[in-house]
Write a structure and sequence with these properties.
single chain; 3-stranded antiparallel β-sheet; binds 2-amino-2-deoxy-6-O-phosphono-alpha-D-glucopyranose
């Protein structure tokens, strides 16, 4: 096992522990008047985390005024108000319920023209770099081992870019888009390089369905066929799992 793992009884307990870790980091940065740079993820895995962060804000006064966040990815093309847009997901689950400043959260723009994408992706990374990099990156994992939308074959030094989604990823997403033919074929994703440059990485995975890919990512060889396996080479990455997701380790 080349990646540290921590296993919880269930995803609820795990999500609370990750939320506590984030709260501690935000507060430590507040004490020294520094921004806290978070890399955020979508998908079902972080939903419990965001619910707990909202609770910590409402019930325990956790402030997000010093938080600057960068989401991993967005479908392309995608209307921000669409039911499936990741910016809408983030607003509904987190941003609209805490005191993060609207200018401080970033989700890749699904409405760019093709011609704008390269410059936009370059600027997205430049903003992160200007802030000194991501302090803590939250990740889920696709069934094929993708992180963000860095699919199999993504290079370890890949940049933020427009990618073609794997068939298997589109099939998984098609339930939200009422059918494969309505499911986007492309997305904008933060590259592997910026993920690897984050000072700390927490990948969360729940359920039996993730057990195989977790085993491969943690214990098998590092390969660009399974981008999550790159995290074996990160010096501060941890996989937070429930019992089912850890069952093949
Ligand atoms: C999508 C997202 C990924 C996410 C993955 C897994 O592909 N772009 O960032 O990790 O789904 O989703 P879930 O957490 O629902 O299993």
């Amino acid at each position: 096992e080349n990646i540290n793992t921590v296993v919880f009884e269930n995803s609820n307990e795990a999500s609370k522990a990750v939320a506590q870790e984030i709260a501690t980091l935000i507060q430590a940065k507040q004490k020294v008047n520094s921004p806290c740079i978070l890399g955020l993820a979508t998908g079902s895995s972080p939903k419990g985390l965001y619910a707990e962060l909202v609770r910590l804000h409402k019930e325990e006064g956790l402030s997000f005024k010093n938080v600057i966040s960068f989401n991993l990815d967005e479908y392309y093309p995608m209307e921000p108000n669409s039911i499936n847009s990741y910016v809408r997901f983030m607003k509904e689950l987190l941003f609209d319920h805490v005191d993060i400043l609207p200018e401080n959260y970033h989700v890749p723009d699904g409405l760019l023209t093709k011609e704008q994408i390269a410059d936009y992706c370059h600027d997205y990374e430049a903003k992160i770099e200007a802030l000194g990099g991501i302090d803590l990156q939250i990740l889920g994992i696709g069934g094929n081992g993708h992180i963000g939308f860095n699919e199999s074959g993504s290079l370890q030094n890949s940049k933020t870019r427009l990618v073609a989604l794997d068939h298997i990823t589109r099939v998984a997403a098609s339930k939200d888009f009422s059918g494969l033919s309505n499911t986007p074929r492309t997305a904008i994703t933060l590259g592997v390089k910026k993920i690897m440059e984050a000072k700390q990485v927490i990948l969360m995975a729940w359920g039996e369905g993730k057990a195989n890919i977790i085993k491969k990512s943690v214990e098998d060889e590092v390969t660009n066929q399974i981008p999550a396996s790159f995290l074996q080479e990160h010096n501060n990455a941890i996989f937070v799992l429930d019992k089912e997701a850890s069952s093949k380790l």
